[in-house]
Structure formats: structure tokens, C-alpha cells
Amino acid sequence: MHVMPLHRLAGADDWAWVTSADESRGVPDVPPPPVLLPTAAQVVDALRTGGGHGSAWFRVPGLELPDCPPQCTRVGCLGEVTLHTADRPAAVTTSDDRVASVGFRGPEPATVLCVVRELTVVGGAQLICDDAADTVFVVWPGEPLDDLTTSWPW
């Protein structure tokens, strides 16, 4: 699964993809205005606050994602987590790097939804898609979890 601030997809080609997805939820007619991208520290804090744990595929001094417990039942599992910047193709390297997207490999989908709600606090509306990129789901700041889970496709 992939998560990114919705405003990052405001370019014509990207917005055409967003609005033409086979299945979508929460996509507005026009992209929202840009907001400052969250820092790596803010993103990792949102992952923790949302109850997530997993395998961090990023190395940032001072930032750690809680590992899955030995008897992990998948509840809270984010799988392998990657953080990517907007201005270079590599993963983040400092806690102040701005994060343009977060990737999850093998997550518990309900946990992704919980952490994305936390990401909206620091990064505005967030778009979630799976690897096939044919379904897009947008979470807006302040949306109640109960409202989101009724249409959550994963």
C-alpha cells in the first residue's frame, strides 16, 4: 500500500489517474491546495500514535518504529515501512527530511487506515492506493474512523 498527501497529485497526469481510478472514495473535483509536507519525525510519530509497529526500511538516527512483538497477531502490523522524500529518489535520512510518500509492504490494512488518520493531522488529506493502483481512497482531516471503515476497500 502507498500513502501520499493528496495535493502532491495535483499535476494534470497524476490528477487524471486519481479521478479515473476503477474504485475511489473521497476524491474531490479539484485537488486541494498544497500544504507543507510532514517531517520524518512527524510521520514516525503518526505511525506510533496510530498504533502501528513493523519493520522500518529506513534508517534515521533517533527515529525508530516499534518492532512487531514476538507473538504478533497482525493487529497493529504495518509490515515493511518505507519513507520517501519529494526532492530526491532516496529514502529519508534525517528526522527533518520532508516525507512525500509512505509505503507499506504486507501490512494489516485496518492499521494503515488508523495511521493515515493520524497523518492527516500533520499532512492534510492523504491518498491511499494498493500496488495495482486501481483503487484510491482519500482520508480527510477530522474524518471519524467509523465513517471511514464502512467504505474501506481493504
Give an account of the 3D structure.
The protein has helices at about 10-20, 40-50, 110-125, 145-150; strands spanning about 1-5, 25, 55, 75-85, 100-105, 125-130, 135-140. The chain is of the alpha/beta class and about 150 residues long. It has one domain (about 1-150). The chain has a 7-stranded mixed β-sheet with strand order 2-7-6-1-5-4-3. α2 packs across α3. The model has no long low-confidence stretch (mean pLDDT about 90).
Give the secondary structure arrangement, pairings included:
Elements: E1 2-5, H1 12-19, E2 23-25, H2 40-49, E3 53-56, E4 77-85, E5 99-105, H3 109-123, E6 126-129, E7 135-139, H4 145-149
Parallel strand pairs: 2-7, 3-4
Antiparallel strand pairs: 1-5, 1-6, 4-5, 6-7
Helix pairs in contact: 2-3
Features:
4 helices, 25% helix
What's the number of domains?
1
N-C termini distance: 10 Å
Strand order of the largest sheet: 2-7-6-1-5-4-3
Which structural category do the helix and sheet elements fall into? alpha/beta
Unreliable segments (pLDDT under 50, ≥5 consecutive)? Answer: none
Task: Kindly estimate the percentage of residues that lie in beta strands according to DSSP.
Answer: 15-25%
**Mean pLDDT, as a whole number?**
91
Biggest beta-sheet profile: 7 strands, mixed
Shape: globular
Number of strands: 7
Radius of gyration, taken over Cα atoms and rounded to an integer in Å: 15 Å
Helix content range: 10-25%
Give the topology string: H per helix, E per strand: EHEHEEEHEEH
Q: Tally the helices: what do you get? A: 4
